[in-house]
Amino acid sequence: MKLLRKTFAEINLDALKANWDFLQKNFPGHFICPMVKANAYGHGDVMIARALESWGAQHLGVCLIEEGLLLRRFGVKAEILVFRGFDREGAEVMIENRLTPVVSSWEQFHALETVAPPGQKFHLKFDTGMNRLGFDVNEAITLAEKIKNQKKLHLVGVLTHLVSGEDSVHLDMTDQQFRDFEQAVQVFQFFKVPFHVLNSGGILTQLCLRKNQRSSTWSEKKWGLRPGLMLYGYNPGVSEEFSELKIVMTLKSQIAVIREVPAGRGVSYNHTWKSAAPARIAVVPIGYADGYHRALSNRGFALCQGKKAAVVGNVCMDYLMLDISGTTAQENSEVILFGQGEKNEVLSARDLAAAGQTVAWEVLTSVSERVPRIYKGEWAHKIESESQL
Ligand SMILES: Cc1ncc(COP(=O)(O)O)c(C=O)c1O
After folding, report:
1. What is the mean pLDDT of the chain?
2. Mind listing the pLDDT tens digit for each residue in 105-131?
3. Which of 199, 225, 242 to probe ligand 1 with, by most ligand atoms within 8 A of CB?
4. Please, where in the chain does CATH 2.40.37.10 lie?
5. For the ranges 88-102, 199-213, 256-270, 287-301, which has the lowest average pLDDT?
């Protein structure tokens, strides 16, 4: 469709490929389940799944059954793990569509057992500290016996989820989780399945430990990986920089109108900002209905001609205003809301998140459906042409 409003999310598949290669290079032979839930963290799940699949990803992670169904409808063939719980009806739908359930409770185990055909694959989740979903590790022996003594369900993976999403350098908690998970690992060793644990924070922490030749009780085991944020180019907060990670999404727009305002003028709803001096105000056609949070009113920044321009006044449903005083920007000049520009200027989703007192995950996943995703890079052409065959 023609872009009548020049507001869009540019998704660089070459950057995604670089991040995928970085994982492959550092963790050869590991179980890897890239997370494509929540519309692939806002990047467009169908294209991201197709790209990952074409690069050899054998597993993909979603939260909802509905997310898995969408990928199947668009021809994705990889094994799709569904992390959210389910009831009997959900189990039936997953079986019909070759989605692989992650079982987190006895209710789910029984629901699946009731409707599953022989050989139905599943993963088993233990709760080692999130206090969200999963079995207690004390149930490992009972579960293992139960699984051995039935013929329908085929265990293909065992997992837990780390509490330290942003920074696994808090090793005390992570150590504790691995010590607890180890109990389940001992019991389930018999099944010869992958044990997957590491989110982006865990993966990058492991790389830091390796680089600094430090080890912890957990860091040298061959854990399976479930990368989310880092796949899209962001270090979630691990203390070292990883220049290999490339930003995948750049949210762009163009200045619609420029207002020259004298000192003392209020801008936007309720005049929460007033110009201290004469100012050039750019009206940019993106607002909270596009996923640019209203909480960024008078706090956010964008890049205009490579320079940071402050969001002034309240963010509206369809517009926000930037103070572009001191620039020569004109109507139709490009604005980068976050991401990386053609001249490598960067405004990271993490910095924007910090300004809005939230996290990069929320900034990325918030970009709403009415913002078109435009794929770029050599890989975009290849994946797009392959999917038209
Ligand atoms: C079960 C599970 N594994 C892995 C991830 C990926 O986490 P991250 O985006 O921090 O890499 C998530 C994200 O929420 C998750 O819920």
Report:
1. 94
2. 999 999 999 999 999 999 999 999 888
3. 199
4. 249-378
5. 199-213
- Distance (Å, rounded) from C-alpha 226 to C-alpha 202? 9
Q: What stretch(es) of the chain map to CATH 3.20.20.10?
A: 31-232
Cβ(200) – ligand 1 distance below 6 Å: yes
pLDDT exceeds cutoff 80 at 64 = yes
Check if the beta carbon of residue 246 is closer than 8 Å to that of residue 18.
yes
Catalytic pick among 77, 269, 307, 308: 269
- Give dist(CA 150, CA 115) in Å, integer: 14
Q: What is the pLDDT of residue 144?
A: 97
Instruction: Name 267's bridge partners.
Output: 273
134: left (phi over 0), alpha (psi -120 to 50) or beta: left
What CATH superfamily is the domain 31-232? Alanine racemase (3.20.20.10)
Based on the residue annotation, tell me whether 152 is a catalytic residue of this protein.
no
CATH class for domain 249-378?
mainly beta
Distance of CA 150 to the CA centre of its chain: 36
Q: From the CB of 42, is ligand 1 less than 6 Å away? A: no
Token pair listed for 134: 């999963």
Q: Residue 224 contacts by C-beta under 8 Å, 6 or more apart in sequence? A: 30, 31, 32, 33, 157, 159, 194, 195, 196, 197, 198
Distance (angstroms) between ligand 1 centre and the Cα of 35 equals 7
Is any ligand 1 atom within 6 A of the Cβ of residue 268?
no
State pLDDT tens for residues 324-376.
999 999 999 999 999 999 999 999 999 999 999 999 999 999 999 999 999 99
Span from the CA of 62 to the centroid of ligand 1 (angstroms): 10
